[in-house]
Amino acid sequence: MKKDKIFVITFLIIIYSVLAIYGLKQILISLNIIELNTTDNWKVYEPFKENNIIDKFENKFNSLKVSVENRANNYFPFYVELNELYQGFNFQTNKLFYNEIPLKTNSDNEYLFYNKENKFYYYETNLKDNELEERLNKQVDFFNELSNKGIDVYIYIPTRYELTTLKDNNISSYISEFKEKLNPKIKVESMKIDSIQEYKDKFYLTDHHWNIVGALDGYNSIMDMLGVDKLSNLNIKQVSNQKYYGSLAKTSMNTETYDCIMDVDVNLNYDVLINGKEKDKLFKPRVLAEGKTNKYYDYYVQYFNGQYGNIVYDYHQDDKENLLIMSDSYAWQIDYLIAASFNKTHVINLRYIPYKDKEFDLTQYIKENNIEKVLFLYEGGSTLFDQYDYNFSGRVK
Amino acid sequence: MVFSSVIFLFIFLPIFLLFYFFFKKRKYRNIVLLIFSLLFYSYGEPIYIFLMILSIIVNYFLVIYMYKNKSKFMFITLIVLNLGLILVFKYFDFFIGNINNLFNLNIKYLNLALPIGISFYTFQILTYVIDVYRKKVPVQKSIINLGCYISAFPQLIAGPIVRYDTINEELDNRKESWEDFSYGLRRFIIGLSKKAIIANEMAYVADSLFSSNLSQLGFIGTFIGIISYSLEIYFDFSGYSDMAIGLGRMLGFHYLENFNFPYIAKSITDFWRRWHISLSSFFRDYVYIPLGGNRCSIFKNIINILIVWILTGLWHGASWNFVLWGLYYAILLIIEKFVLKKVLDKFPNFLKHIYTIILVMLGWLIFYFTDLSSLGTALTNLFGLNGLGSLTLIFHLQIFKVRTIIIFIIAIIFSMPINILKKNNIVTYILLILLFIISVVFILGSNYNPFIYFRF
User: N or C: which end of chain B has fewer CB within 10 A?
Assistant: First the structure.
């Protein structure tokens, strides 16, 4: 009886302590006394189309549910530490079996891996062949439709590891298939990577982005493809010695290796509008906010800041053409460099406001802004497979 | 809401216990149980909760009418109503699909979402209706009590199917105690760890393999997949039953056992005495025996077995593979009963185990694949017709992880009757608390899926 009581009371102490901590954290956070270390695991509820009052109710209810579940997970005592322990155990034990270590899947259920021999992280799609094929055909149809409307389309494909032939089970063949299926009027180039060393030189070891070396390589190819002059003497500098654990290290909660942020050493003059409002050209700080306590702090986002739906670079070169760059975060490092060879360059990222939840008519935008050329600059997988659901095909009216 | 979630463990459960034990009177405790059960259900089914409330109200009044008037008509009406509900939500589109295919028609589907737990709570209601009609139990005069019986959150979503006569007395006259709470908590933690630690890991292996390119899996991949799935389904379902039985016991209810180490069975007949006992005994008592059971001609007996097992198959889902699965067991049970029994009795025990486990695993393969063409590929794999399979693919999926192997071994060991964690000593309690914490870490770990911007 006494042992039973002790057992039950211990259990009750645990669950009521956690409940009390939930309440306390909610109060302290709402009073701005403390803040969450990270909101990485904060899920977003995406409402479905409401056709009736029941749909409306379900959307409201589910949104509330996600909000409660977010708090239940993220306010859990020692949440990050417990997860680090869990991931750490997996990581260490998996080393016993594999050279290429699976870490976990990200929120798109892609497998994350660590190439132990060459010390870099990578991930690969878990879409099946038929799904990839279906998505590729949909993308091709979209680009061909644009071209058939008389729009001058240019596509550049940065080749992340799984899109190179360096990797076993790679999906590089889709690039040639994509090129073959495109209307010949469309100009398309892909990044060439011939060795692991070249890959490591051009991409972050811990992040899914290309680094400035890769981005400048892309810049040169893009400018040749666009048939315009490019800037010369672009020297690369390491911004600081701050260790940068990028998105892949962050997802796996692992610090096996690290990167440093690098940039080009250049100063250009232009005006910039963000979502229609004038901004100082230093909206990209190009100063690293070093020494953040969160070791997985995202220096890429902070340094190359580009989380805007619509950026217009105006170099006031009326004799030159206007360009539209449809892009994701891959463009952040070089968009203003590309823009230097044009009059006005519009950079659109469909993931951000004002396009995040809004209809966007690409053809109308091109007409309204006297755009002569359209460049698509996305992470390779997105261009080929629209794997992050930019809904390209729904953007052309 | 599921038991293996932080929201249940650290929000719902403590708040519920606080309210439940705050009141001393049985009536108020039952009201608290009913309110929280409805909240629990509405968390997953904000719309269908109204269907459940309606079901409680309708059955309450109509059963009283049936009881008072000894009305056979009302009895049949109630059976039709309750089965009609499950037929509409679960089987209507399946039926229409088959009609469309058979006669090349284009009848529109209802496309109704299946209310969670409908198969369980409908069967619970049926036991109440039938047992009252048979005068086996008195009619329930309190709608709160009937609501508690139908919707009690411990067994609402995934059983076990609690018969009304099991808890009729306890609805009014149960007694909560430290001993019962402690026993219930022990069962709950064991069930939670079965689900969070073992079943989820085995599910990862089985799903990784079976959702990959099946034709490349060959014998080895399919074999590993089906062993993992066999373990997953056992630990998942028996874990849930443990949690349900445990939560019930904390509140003073004594639900009957639903599993009795089915993988140590020595025959298929024995397996079904140990697996999902509440379902097989329901079909035995409410379908098989009323049909005449085995007190009839051999031919009629065989027909009865076939009916019961096709229904058992369909109960699990509206798909042909479940019908096939039910039929598979019907045939095995008929063969065992009329042909193999005497031969099997002469086998040594280990051969009986091997015979049973192979057939059960084959059954799970039929159960897993709702798509018959995939099932065909998996079966040809298992019989070695597609070769040993691609080890590259199996290694690429990286299912052989230290954690997986450790859990696999634990799963095999705990499929057998082991007395660890049954003793009433302090070491056992410390182990149970540790097991609870590890389960929570696993639950948090599997939830940790950072929404990071890198998709943009």
Answer: N
